[in-house]
Amino acid sequence: MASTKATKAITIEADSKSATTIEDGAVITEASDLQSTNEVREINQPLFRAVGIVKGEVKFSDEEKNRLTVTISKFEYGIECKKRHSDALSGLKKEIASTGQTTQRLIVYPKVMHFPKKDQPQRVWFQLVGFVREDKKIGLAEDLADNEFKLCGLWQFIPVCRPPCISIFLNFKQERLDFLKKSDDPATSAKFMKASHIPVLWKDSPVRPFRFNPKAGKEQGHPYFVQIKAAFLPHRDAFGFVEQLEEPIEQAPKFMKLPKAKGRKNFSPQAKKDRPQKIQPNRTNKIINNQ
Predict the structure, then answer these.
(1) Which of 159, 209, 241, 251 has the greatest CB tally within 10 Å of its CB?
(2) pTM metric for this prediction
(3) Sign of CA dihedral 227, 163, 140, 82
(4) φ/ψ (deg, to 5) at 220
C-alpha cells in the first residue's frame, strides 16, 4: 500500500546558477539559505542542513497542475514544490517530456511531520530542490548515492518520536533577524523558523542523543551538533546512519529560534497575536558529555 509524501526543485545544467549553487555545496535547509560560493568557502564552518537525492518514478497529477509524487521501493511519497522554484519544476517536466524517462534522481529536502499519539507513525515527504541529469553528475550528485542524505543538526530525542532525531534549525543571518523583528505576525514567524526533526537510526553513535529532562536544571547539558550521511529507509519512514562527515561538536552554529512565551510551555500564536514575539538568535552553550 503506497504511502504519500513531498519535494522542491532546481535544474542542474552546466550554465545555470542552480548548478553552481549545488555544485559548490551551498544547498542548505531552506531555499533562502542558498549562499554564494565565496561566502561558503570564506566562512568554512558547520551549518544546519538536510539535503539529499532520491531516485524513483515521478508522476504528475492530472487534477493538480503542480502536484507530483515519487515512488521509492514501491512506496509513494509526495513532492512539495514551492512557488519560488517553479523554474526547477518546469525543467523537470521538460526533461521527462524530452527523454521519456520518468525515473529521475531528485535533489530534495526531507520533511517530517510527527504526531502526538505513540501509535501514529511520522509522515515523510520531500521538498524539491532540483534534479540530476545523467550526463551532468556534479557536486552533490557525485557525493551522494541514490536515497542518501547529508544531515547536519542537533542529535537529540523529541517527545513525539521514538527514535532520536537530528534537528535542523534555521541558520542565523542578521537580515533574517531584522526582518523578523519587524514582523507583527507571530504565526508567520513561527512557521518561518519551524525546525525539522529527522528520525535517524544510529545504533553506535559516538555521543548519546540528548534527552531533555524537565525536572533537571541547566547542568544536564545540551545536544551535540552532528554531521552525517544517512540513507532513507522507505519501509521505516526514517533514515539510517551511513557514515560520519565530521566529528560531533559541542558548540552548534548560531540558529534562529522563537523564545517560549512567558508562563507557557509552548509558543502559541493565537494567544500572542496582539503581542509580537521578540526574535533572537540562539546558540547552544558548551555541552556536558551525557554519556
Answers:
(1) 209
(2) 0.74
(3) negative
(4) -70, -15
